[in-house]
Amino acid sequence: MNTIILFSVIKCVATLPWIGDIVKTIGGKNVKVDVIVHPQSDPHKVYLKPSMIIKFKKADVLFYNGLDLEIGYLPYLIEKSGNPRIMPGAEYNVDLSKFVPLILEKPKGKVTREMGDVHPYGNPHYHLDPLNIIAISDSLKNFFSRIDPSSAEYYQKNFNNFKKELKDSLKSWREKYRILKNKKFVSYHKLYEYLAYRFGFKIIGYIEPKPGIPPSPGYIKKLVEKIKKEKVSLILSSVYYDKKAPKKLRRLTGINYVILPHDVGSIEGTENYISLISKILKVIKGGFELD
Amino acid sequence: MIKLILLSQLVNPYFNPEFGGILYFKGEKITDSTFKKQELYFEMVIKGAVDPYFIFYGTFPIMLAGVELEEAYVNSLSLPFNLYIGKFKSKFTRLNSLHPHSWDFPELPKLYNFLKFYEENEHEESEEEHIHHHPHHGINDIGLGISWIAPFDIFWEPGFEVLKGHEDNYDNFIFYHHLSVDLASSFTLWLSPSIAVNKREIVFYGSEFVLKMIEPGKERLKGVLFTAGFFKGEKEKFQGGWIDLVYKFTYGWRIGIRTDLIKNNNPSYLFMLDYSPTEYSRFRISYNLKEEKIFFEFNFSVGPHGIHPF
Fold first, then answer.
1. Residues of B in contact with A60 (CB under 8 A)
2. Which residues are paired to B111 by β-bridges?
3. How, if at all, do strands B268-278 and B253-262 pair?
4. What is the radius of gyration, based on Cα positions, of chain A?
5. How many other β-carbons are positioned within 10 Å of the β-carbon of residue A221?
6. Which of A62, A291, B116, B172 has its CA 20 to 30 A from that of A122?
């Protein structure tokens, strides 16, 4: 498919804030990006607003996370928009997970709801691995160059700059946060697995007994024993989770908890992708250095 | 801006239809007596693209007495407007288009007894019979609808529906507008003024109002949904409305109150408390103060992940 479109400005709609940020970084002045999910929202619990439909209707291109993370609202918005450019399978319906080299936790057996809200195609929170983001921006550069070849050089330049900046940051993070290596953490949801994989720390337990299921008192009791036995350094939660459970764990174990950003703009100091990762690492390190 | 899109790019229907279902039970009892009415059905839901141009939606409640065709219609996918043909629930209010298992209360507001084009068959249901018959809910008929989303910054979707009348004539019309605006990141307002017409005669007109308050980041824990509707009948004279207030106060738990207001009647109140361990199951108890009726409901869904609608 080699359709060439002559655009004045490419109108993009992105589901999540980090996607909007990367699209803007590569597309630069040639793109206008509408992000539909609020940075503080729980990406699993997005409620539809009719205003989102308008953004989908007007878009030339749709970018989304994929791996069923947006299953609760994306199919409806696409259908309701009646926008043939972004229908499933159309060229401008862009599932970013297709460009990701590393997908963790792909279920081997059959997935059922008994397991909670398990994502059947693997852990969808791949954006917290910077190497995945480099692969995505490379593909975005190719995508924009294909649909808008007259600016191919511009996209290449944006990509080169971003790649260099992210690679340099990764190098300095690895240096600066060496202390995280082999540390053990408990987290609320399976949200930080890709970060753990990249920076060599371990997440040995979850506040949720199963994805999307809140903990029972019995489960908390078992988790307290595990935290003590495994010598966990810190409990990781996110802005949209209830603070009750992490507070209770802190009281029962003496282990501190921190509230981490999960997306661009979710807390102060996370204005773009690089500052997001930087902030997460800084908050984690700050969390156990307090003790 | 010039756009060239090859038709071949659009030929990509979704694979196989999606199947899902909801098991729903409602028991109704007058205080201090046995169950008066019971309803149990498994609502089968089928959805799938027909071709690049149409998507099919069907809901078939399976009861002890058999299967009913509640909704079966196709919706256009790639027209500049939205066309729907078949048997469908009218979109003149948000509430009317919802299926009973997704209502916030066990019944429709009392005013819905008046919001119709004609009297349904004068078949008096015995109370035990209820378990075999899926009661009709709101305006739901065979017909055709067209709506169009305006390319503005405010959501505005005018539409009209032509529905089958009493004697198989397609002479019932509904004209509606869906309007919505985000007042802030946590406040969304929705209005749907509408008018129902039969043979050039106004049947009823009015509007539904919805205000949804969900703070980003607090979706799991808190939320307020305010819904109200006010309608006036011209053919059969009536005037009235309802006000629903539903408050999610902690994970999985909600309380709510409905006030039914009908001119020349005292207001009646319906209270509800429900608990959803996950978004796939729900238990609810409700109490109608005036009629001294208690309702018990449960709701379990299987199949593909549903939509969190507005």
1. 3
2. none
3. antiparallel
4. 20
5. 12
6. A62
Angle among Cα A217, B301, A56 to the nearest 5 degrees reads 100
CB atoms near residue B191 (< 10 Å): 15
Question: What is the nearest CA distance from B66 to chain A, expressed in angstroms?
Answer: 28
Q: Look at A87 and B2 and tell me if their CB atoms are within 8 Å.
A: no
Q: How far apart are the CA of A21 and the nearest CA of chain B, in angstroms? A: 19
Supply A252's token pair. 């029962």
Tokens standing for residue A209: 């007994």
Q: Given an 8 Å threshold on Cβ–Cβ distance, is B81 in contact with A82?
A: yes
Q: Tell me the per-residue pLDDT of A231-286, one tens digit each, with 9 for 90 and over.
A: 999 999 999 998 999 999 999 999 999 999 999 999 999 999 999 999 999 999 99
CA distance A78 to B6: 19
Q: Which residue of A has its CA nearest to B277?
A: A213
Q: Which amino acid is at B203?
A: V
Which residues does residue B160 pair with via DSSP β-bridges, in sequence order? Answer: B146, B175
Using alpha carbons only, what angle is made at residue A76 by residues B189 and A102, rounded to the nearest 5 degrees? 120
Rounded Cα gap, residues B43 and B23, in angstroms: 6
**B232/B239 Cα distance (integer angstroms):** 4
d(CA A266, CA A271): 9
What CA–CA distance (Å, rounded) separates B141 from A209? 45
Report yes or no: B140 and B167 within 8 Å, Cβ to Cβ. no
Give every CB contact of residue B167 below 8 A, 6+ residues apart in sequence. Answer: none
Query: Residue A211 in contact with residue B279, Cβ under 8 Å?
Result: no
B49 touches B27 (CB < 8 A): no
Global confidence as pTM? 0.89
Alpha-carbon torsion (B25, A73, B251, B258), positive or negative: negative
The size of chain B, in residues, is 310
Q: Which residues contact A200 (CB under 8 A, 6 or more apart)?
A: A180, A181, A182
Between chains, do B309 and A48 touch, taking CB under 8 Å as contact?
Answer: yes
User: Which SS3 state, helix, strand or coil, does residue B15 take?
Assistant: coil
State pLDDT tens for residues B221-235. Answer: 899 999 999 999 998
The Cα–Cα gap between B297 and B283 comes to 6
Phi, psi dihedral angles at A70 (to 5 degrees):
-100, 20
Distance spanning both ends of chain A, measured CA to CA: 57
Contact between A84 and B10 under an 8 Å Cβ cutoff? The reply is: yes
